[in-house]
Amino acid sequence: MLYETFFLLALVTSLVIEVPILIGLVRVVFQNEDLTLTRIFSAGVLCTVVTLPNLWFVLPPYVDAAYFPFVGEALVVAAEALILNRLLGLAPKTAIICSVIMNAASYGFGFIAF
């Protein structure tokens, strides 16, 4: 399979996993009813479509393969937490928790499935 095709599969999979998790976390766990589903959904999609291409295509030449999963995921979590904080107004701690859980779920699924 082409690297680009594998990336598209990872992108769709990440969206399917991460966006519903974000909605559940914001609405159920953190009980935030002020944010619309559309706004949460849009922020979740933006998180993935901004960070995943950078993780797959920009970062690899700059990070040693041995450290790539740790450095890459840490940068993704930080970037997505910032996006969630700025776009949804989530407290920094809440945004980090959401980002960690979203990315742990999609990374774990990808690790098991692929």
Task: Please give a handful of descriptors for the protein shown.
114 residues; single chain; mainly alpha; 4 helices; 81% helix; globular
Q: What does the secondary structure layout of this molecule look like, with pairings?
A:
Blueprint: H1 3-29, H2 37-58, H3 68-88, H4 92-113
Helix pairs in contact: 1-2, 1-4, 2-3, 3-4
Short description:
This protein has helices at residues 3-29, 37-58, 68-88, 92-113. With 114 residues, it is mostly helical.
Detailed description of the structure:
This protein has helices at about 5-30, 35-60, 70-90, 90-114. By secondary structure, it is mainly alpha-helical. The protein has one domain (about 35-114).
Largest sheet: none
Low-confidence stretches: none
What spatial form do the alpha-carbon principal axes imply?
globular
| Structural class based on helices, strands and sheet pairing | mainly alpha
Number of helices: 4
Radius of gyration: 14 Å
Give the rounded overall mean pLDDT.
97
